[in-house]
Amino acid sequence: MLSTALYVTLALVVMALLMNLYRLTIGPSLPDRVLALDTMYVNSIALIVLLGLWLNSKTYFESALLIAMLGFISTVAVCKYILRGDIIE
Amino acid sequence: MSVIVEALISLLLIAGGIFVFIGSLGMAHLRDFYMRLHGPTKATTLGIGCMLIASMLYFWSVDGKPDIQELLITLFLFITAPVSAHLLAKSGLHLRLKHADKTQGKPVELRPEEVGDKPVPHPDKGHG
């Protein structure tokens, strides 16, 4: 039961990543692309969690935490650049 | 692992996958940046929370002791998602992106001193 659920969830997350890639490619404006990248790192955290469930190891959760922090900081930096033309004033 | 715990973990995993999929579907499909902002900021955050709780339950039932690492990731994502959504909405309003007719709260409804092209001078001029 668990392995079937794992495969279904993996398929759903991969399809979500493909749709994020579509929006990142055609996105008509800059905030659309930033939003697509933001969603892509959240979905990559989901993939890492599913990989940890699949391999039955907890090694990869530190990398998930690292991706969460760095993704948030990069989104905030790009938004500050769009808003103010500068990141650290 | 008992059958009930396994069913609960499977249910949380599939619910998380469906929420993540719906969030990305909304972002790929809707017409307007301000509409597209809704999908990833709400549905994707809930989905990733479901998946992380499922992972925490799985390792709790395998190892026999709870682990706080996944809860930390969940908490961090739940704190940071509204902040990044707020900043993205502000940058969309700043760039004056096109919006559909149904979208409420247009940039022209802001206060007049926040609309102009020129930057508003700061009232505190005490730099000299």
Automatic annotation (TrEMBL), chain A:
Record's subcellular location: Cell membrane
Family under the similarity heading: Belongs to the CPA3 antiporters (TC 2.A.63) subunit F family.
InterPro entries: MrpF/PhaF-like
Membrane topology listed for this record: Multi-pass membrane protein
Alphabetized UniProt keyword annotations: Antiport, Cell membrane, Ion transport, Membrane, Transmembrane, Transmembrane helix, Transport
Protein name: K+/H+ antiporter subunit F
Classification via Pfam families: MrpF_PhaF
Cellular component GO terms held in the UniProt record: plasma membrane
TM region(s), chain numbering: 6-22, 34-54, 60-83
Main location: membrane
Single GO molecular function: sodium:proton antiporter activity
Organism: Vreelandella maris
UniProtKB/TrEMBL annotation, chain B:
Residue stretches spanning the membrane: 6-30, 42-60, 72-89
UniProt-listed InterPro entries: PhaG_MnhG_YufB
Domain of life according to the entry: Bacteria
An example Gene Ontology molecular-function term: sodium:proton antiporter activity
Region listing for Disordered, in residue ranges: 101-128
Pfam families xref list: PhaG_MnhG_YufB
Keyword Transmembrane helix included in the entry's annotation: yes
Keyword Membrane found: yes
Keywords annotated in UniProt: Membrane, Transmembrane, Transmembrane helix
NCBIfam families with a match to the protein in the record: CPA3_mnhG_phaG, PRK12674.1-5
Protein name: Na+/H+ antiporter subunit G
Naturally occurring in which organism (per UniProt): Vreelandella maris
